[in-house]
Write the structure tokens for this entry.
Amino acid sequence: MRVCFTNLGCKLNQAELETLAREFHRAGHRVVATLEEADLHVVNSCTVTHRAARDSRKVARRGRRRAPGLKTVLTGCYATGSPEEAAALAGVDLVVPNRDKEGLLEQVHAAFPEWAPSPEIPTLKALEALDGPPVLAFGNTRALVKIEDGCNVGCAFCIIPSTRGRQRSRPLPGIVEEVRSMAAAGFREVVVTGVQISHYRWQGRRLADLVAALLAETSIPRIRLTSIAPWAFDRRLLELWADRRLCRHVHMSLQSGSDRTLARMRRPYGSRAYGELVAEIRAAVPGVAVTTDVIVGFPGETAEEFEESRDFVAATGFARTHVFPYSPRPGTEAADLPDPVRPAEIKARTAAMIESAAAAERCFRASHRGERVSVLWEERRDGRWHGLTDNYLRVTAAAPSGLDLANVVSEARVVDLSEAGVRAELTGLEGWGASAP
């Protein structure tokens, strides 16, 4: 069977879809890049905002229109939160909620027996040849590793507890073994992901213990952390950043810089505590990129509260800020709160927040002008190589046409800003048998 995978939403969704792709691959199926060449379309959906839910529906319907005869499986948070609506979508043949996602391959074989492998196929030799991740759809430089799922916090705006359930963590030895297999398969970076990875708990061990084990027991060149809760930050992590394999990048959702808005959101911290934590991290990890999420237009947000939030974002100087206009989700506490902000006002505030966030991001990128940085190169596009530093700078650089830097970590010197990152020139090319252009 030829299978095309489409992801919507967060890195956790992407990590789950990559795991599914490997499972289909090891079962003898072929992962393909386009719907036109596929027999089956697996869509991992999102419903964190009304726009995400709308996009999930659109993508699920797209397959049958573009490839008559294509079967579509819809899974993920939209499929979990609105299962009847998902099943009624034109072109959707099978709906698999999050709780059953780990058995999705078996459900596909049961629903479409014509594609189930016979007991003799694939052979042991074929399975050995297929072992390891498929690279066609997802690339082979960075891999996402899921360490936990679910959430117990209950923020007023968030639908995740009802779509992903209560928090639970994977056993530490299994995560270590998975990262070892990623390193053996040639990946240069793993991204540790989950709903809130700082809530990782397994037999008394926490996130810092897991990261220490990954650094000590695997050879992966880079480890990147995502989705750390500011109220649950483990200070032991600060010592681990002495190992340069741990990427200098911390993503902590702020959601608002106004304490009054944070209280209505039911976020268990205030802006002062958040700012002090950012300062502590920056003092311990020079050059660290602190990235965040901010919601604009939460119910009851006054003009004064918005300006407090905007001023906090500007003063904190995040390396990147994802700005979300508030989107009511049925089933959340916030959906029933009074004093909704008018859509036109939300739109204006969103634009203003994006402007402040972009200015802070430019300052972060400009602070690296003239520095030598270590870049994991991903692909050559439009005549330039594109890659990512450990502290989340998007880098482009010219290189001789015969120089293949895919999945290579090398040094470059930042010379200027680009539209979405920085431009750099390669250094130390002597070892590659080429000279700089």
